[in-house]
Amino acid sequence: MFDQNGLSLDQAPPISVVFGLFLMGAIFGVISGISILYFGHDIFDISSTGAIITVHLLALGFAMSFMLGALFQMLPVVAGVVLESPIPKSNLVKVALALGVVSLIIGFVTNVGLLFLFATIFLGSSLLYVAYTMGSRLLKLSNHSASSRGMIYAIFSLSLLVLLALYMTTAYAQMHSGIYFATIKQMHYSFALFGWVALLIMSISFQTVEMFYVTPAYPKLLGRYAPATVFALLVAASLSLLVNNKLESYIMILVYLLFAIYGTITLIRLSQRKRPLADATVWFWRIGMVSLIISMILLIVHAFISNDTLLEGAIVLFVSFVTSVIFSMFYKIVPFLTWFHLNAQGYFTAPMMHEVIHPTIAKRHMWLHIVMVVSFAFAILIPQMVYLAAVLMMASFLWTTYHIIHAQKLYKYTQENSEKFEMNIG
Amino acid sequence: MNKILIDAREMEHPVPLERGIAAISTLGKDDYIYMLNRKNPIPLIKLAKERGLNTLSYEDDQNTWHILISIQDENRLKELFDV
Q1: Which end of chain A is less congested by CB atoms within 10 angstroms, N or C?
Q2: Are the CB atoms for A213 and A273 separated by under 8 Å?
Q3: Considering only CB atoms, which chain B residues are within 8 Å of A343?
């Protein structure tokens, strides 16, 4: 049969959409490093203001920006979903998200109710809008892949975590008493970390790991049922919080187990690559998956033996999992988009992908990243190490910031100084 | 007709696209690109069509895609399939 089923990368979004969100994420990453430098070892006390501020700078400022940028890029690739008018949509999300994060962080510092009201409006409107825009298009697909199906559950989780967050920000804004605050906070963290972040990474990997690294496909059972199972378990765990905290922790153990299995399968798949050499992006995936597996094991042990150090280790490694995978995707997406858009516009003298960001640049960043993760792990036991870790985090995100700006400049330079391609036929 | 074979079945994304675009940029009127791939490379096909080339894609029973790109018309391309 002659048809066009397959990869649908031709409708890649304008470069400014993805680069704008990535740049914002990288800048918030630098600010996260500054926050850690300021609060020091307090960030390991999860109920402290320093920890709450740093977690939100990382989760909302850094990870959310990168993940939304990646979604704008990946939705056409993995699901064939094209978002109309991506530039105004992404600008709206970018501005509202930035204002929301800044309001929230200053709100945490000053405890001024009005700032939480601003955060409620900006974060609620931007994130629910993006969840609706992307989710409604995904739901309309007639044929689902493991990736597109999983992304629907991740976006459902995003909507839920935002609604739960709005309960808390409106309580901070003194619009109600916040009687269920502690329970809602627990649900919010579960849906944010596992329903949104981890599930989105899992869903995207079902297609990208095989496509980027020529590995065997993930087991059909995992692709078909894991995202729905994680989502159902998170809903069950949240509901059980209303009646029995112990039951919630047992249900969450199943979630941890599922992600540990997923991480193990991903490591096995990466070891089955056809190409013997591994570039930095493969190693970022491996670091991410090892971090995920150990983090999940620590959380399982923590469910039986309540110990702060175990929990702190699990959090550090979960952050390592997320940042590692994001950096891997970053080094795939930025050179590709720059090269692809220039070629699509007819600039056949456009820089090749390795000229946009050379693989050795990614490899150096990988080493910086490894030292940063190890420093954070040691900082749990040696408080002074946290300052080194913070500086390394700032360096890591400044590095990222520089390479986004560099790619953008190269893109503009090629557009302004290169001739367009003429066909050699006729 | 000169065949430019690109066996992309074991190439990591986006190398097939990179090789395909490089081949299109030097394609003569008596040349045709014959790509073997795990997926149908729609971005490459779109780029080829935008440059006035004809393309044809076919998935065989081994799930390998055969993609032909040339200035020649579709009927001529069908004659050139190796399946």
Answers
A1: N
A2: yes
A3: 21, 47
The answer to whether residue A254 scores a pLDDT higher than 70 is yes
Q: Best interface-test mutation with B: which of A1, A215, A425 has the largest number of B CBs within 10 A?
A: A425
Is there a contact between A336 and B39 if contact means CB atoms under 8 Å apart?
no
Fold held by B2-79: Translation Initiation Factor IF3 (3.30.110)
Mean pLDDT value of segment A289-316? 96
**Interface check A359 vs B, CB under 8 A:** no
**SS3 state at B6:** strand
Q: Higher confidence at residue B43 or residue A19?
A: A19
The chain-wide mean pLDDT, for chain A, equals 92
Residue type, A308: D
pLDDT tens, position by position, A160-185: 999 999 999 999 999 999 999 999 99
* Beta-carbon separation of B42 and A424 below 8 A: no
Q: Are the C-beta atoms of residues B81 and B1 closer than 8 Å to each other?
A: no
Q: Is A425 in Cβ contact with B29 (below 8 Å)?
A: yes
From chain A, the residues in CB contact with B81 under 8 A are: none
Q: Please indicate whether, in this complex, the C-beta atoms of B42 and A7 are within 8 angstroms of each other.
A: yes
Looking at the complex, does the CB of residue A82 fall below 8 Å from at least one CB of chain B?
Answer: no
Banded pLDDT at A246 (limits 50, 70, 90)? confident
- Nearest CA distance, A12 vs chain B (angstrom): 9
Q: Above 90 in pLDDT, residue A306?
A: no
Helix axis angle for A181-190 and A245-271, nearest 10°, is 10
What residue ranges do the domains of chain B occupy? Answer: 2-79
A339–chain B Cβ distance below 8 A for any pair: yes
Task: Nearest chain B residue to A422 by CA: give it.
Answer: B25
* CA A217-A231-A211 angle, 5° bins: 20
Looking at chain B, the number of H-run helices and the number of E-run strands are: 3, 4
pTM (predicted TM-score)? 0.90
Q: Which of A148-157, A341-350, A390-399 has the lowest mean pLDDT?
A: A341-350
Those residues whose C-beta lies under 8 Å from the C-beta of residue A59, and which sit 6 or more positions away, are A192, A197
Question: What is the architecture of the domain spanning A9-412?
Answer: Up-down Bundle (1.20)
